[in-house]
Design goal:
It is built from 17 helices and 20 strands. The chain is an alpha/beta fold and about 500 residues long. The strands form five sheets. A seven-stranded mixed β-sheet has the order 8-7-16-17-18-15-19. The protein has a five-stranded parallel β-sheet with strand order 10-2-1-14-20, covered by helices on one side. Strands 5-9-6 form a three-stranded antiparallel β-sheet. The termini are close together.
Length: about 500
Amino acid sequence: MARVVVVGAGLGGLSTAARLGALGHQVTVLEQAGQIGGKLGLLRRDGFGFDTGPSLLTLPAVYRDLFLKTGEPLEDVLSLEPVDPACHYRFPSGLELDVPGGPGHVSRAWADALGPKAGDDWTAFHRRAAQIWDLTRDPFLESPLDGARTLLGLARNPADIRTVAPWLSLRGLGRKYLQAPEQRMFLDRYATYTGSDPRRAPAALATVPFVEHAFGSWYIPGGLWKLGAAVADRAVSHGVKIRTSASVEQVLAGSSRVEGVRLEGGETVPADVVVSGVEAAHLYRDLMPGPEGDAGRRALRRATPSLSGFVMLLALRGRTPGLRHHTVLFPDDYDAEFDHVFGTGRQAGKASPVPDPTIYISAPDDPELRPDDDHEAWFVLVNAPRHDPGAGMDWDAPGLASSYAEKILAVMAARGLDVRDRLLWNEIRTPADLERGTRSTGGSIYGSSSNGARSAFLRPANRGPVPGLFLVGGSSHPGGGLPLVGLSAAIVADLVGRA
């Protein structure tokens, strides 16, 4: 059995540690922060509680597999509750729509809102997305990528290539099936689940709404952060050592393979295997600054970084009638949002805060997250450009965060959710704060975006350029979000076993 060091106690690192610990490896997890969880965090203040990362779990089978392979089943450890409706949407046309769980229910919701044609259109789109899921799940999500050779299986059957349509963007696929502008806007939002622009993200991202609608949306009472805590407990039960406030300064590589890591302060932790759960850009730029990281840096230069997010944690007095678990308020001009975030189109080279953003609100009706029944805890997120002072986007500029927060509250009020007179306090988290807290470059939520047909092959591979080095988590293959991070951990655990 190998000595394994896992760098980072985010969900990817913890999941890998639990799997490897159950296999008998000697595993140590090193986390630079004072607590575990990475982006899957929790803030408690004055009796209020907020998930500061993901707010729902899709494809729970990924974590059921993790817990079954390491001990007691997931449901013996955590309570999973379905979120239904999954989300309430408000469109610029005035349409309001509750999207329920289950593919048939989603189509009926569209039919009830916009007529039978809209329901039929969504059914046809969902059927195509299911076909893409069936073709791509194993080679692209559950296995390590093998460069262009991964496409060979599909290439043997031209019909499969036509189904996946690697030449089409997600928006382009939506235009083939969806006539209603509200449905196209609804589909566009799923590109942001990977931090991407729907005009450039591949049609294969149709699998994101497919998974959500086919397998449901789930919540853990008390907050999604409990998933990370449960995985950490499972890892520790198999002898894994977790050290917080242990910042890795360098991955040590000899002439033939990794030798361990060096911490800030000089301590060396020897290892036969190093699993990096930090963002790939941080790994190759900061932890492997020598020639052994050259290949990783070159690959990252060809990729587009993902978007970031501007977050407000709102402590509110009173209750909101009819409030759903999730609410999305769409803008008049969705393209303008992506141009501002990525510095494209009308904003070419000038990424900046979105003046009229899509607003995402997570407000679970959860007694564990509020001081009493006459208060609410809201997590409010808008898509935002990365913190990049060198290119002119400086989220630390004096007054910017507070003035932008006031603007978002005003936009919420204009769209029918005015909470300003109920606000007890507002804690703001900018992309610069996310960068400092997680060492993600510029606060990129997902590392590399999925912008471009070749984006899957530009995402850092799970096997690093030095023998014994592996990458796990949202910035490596197969991507970000709780399901893909869990799949990444399963891939890496298998690779370590074969190394």
